[in-house]
Inverse folding.
């Protein structure tokens, strides 16, 4: 009985920890910086912390002869499987599989976005260039792409004005476009784990099985057992 209570306590503790939100801060100014905070812990995700170089150890001279290096490269198993799938299903089948996978991934990621709460989002895009005509066309294309995309993102993450801001400016004196972005938000690990498991079981696993079974004959269903009874005379 005590063991059962201990297990229930551990499950409740894990569930409580998964419900505590992870907060993140994103900043882009030519380089992306992302910090994540959980309880009293803070971790820099991007750029990755540099690892300290390990001290070099002096190599003792060995009596063994150095092995001859060969220029032969081992074939990539993923590329071989892609080639095998293409031969079995054709190029159209491979492209259809990739399109379906991307579509399912986008759908699952969109569901996860609904659980991410953006508390502050600010995107500033400055369009510029040497050619005035090309720069004006680029400005129109950027506006047509950025504003609808950011609007969808803010709606999914429930970030409303004045916390969600986006601006696209045009400056002919600037030679290259510039992008500045800052974002603050939070997400509960429980939703990340839930959608991650759902994505693994319902999306990746079926696509992986279909990808691996390319060219293999489909298993024939077992013949139903005869339920006829012998007639007695």
């Amino acid at each position: 009985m005590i063991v059962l209570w201990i297990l229930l306590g551990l499950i409740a503790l894990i569930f409580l920890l998964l419900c505590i939100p992870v907060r993140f801060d994103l900043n882009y100014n030519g380089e992306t910086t992302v910090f994540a905070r959980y309880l009293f812990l803070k971790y820099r995700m991007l750029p990755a912390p540099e690892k300290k170089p390990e001290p070099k150890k002096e190599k003792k001279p060995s009596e063994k002869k150095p092995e001859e290096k060969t220029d032969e490269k081992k074939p990539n198993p993923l590329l071989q499987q892609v080639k095998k799938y293409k031969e079995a299903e054709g190029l159209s089948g491979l492209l259809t599989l990739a399109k379906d996978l991307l579509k399912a991934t986008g759908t699952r990621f969109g569901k996860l976005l609904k659980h991410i709460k953006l508390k502050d989002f600010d995107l500033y895009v400055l369009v510029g260039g040497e050619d005035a005509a090309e720069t004006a066309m680029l400005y129109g294309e950027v506006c047509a792409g950025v504003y609808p995309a950011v609007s969808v993102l803010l709606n999914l993450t429930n970030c409303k004005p004045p916390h969600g801001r986006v601006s696209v400016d045009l400056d002919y004196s600037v030679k290259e476009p510039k992008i500045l972005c800052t974002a603050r938000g939070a997400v509960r690990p429980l939703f990340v784990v839930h959608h991650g498991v759902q994505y693994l079981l319902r999306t990746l696993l079926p696509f992986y099985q279909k990808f691996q079974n390319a060219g293999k004959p489909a298993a024939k269903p077992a013949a139903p057992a005869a339920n006829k009874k012998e007639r007695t005379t």
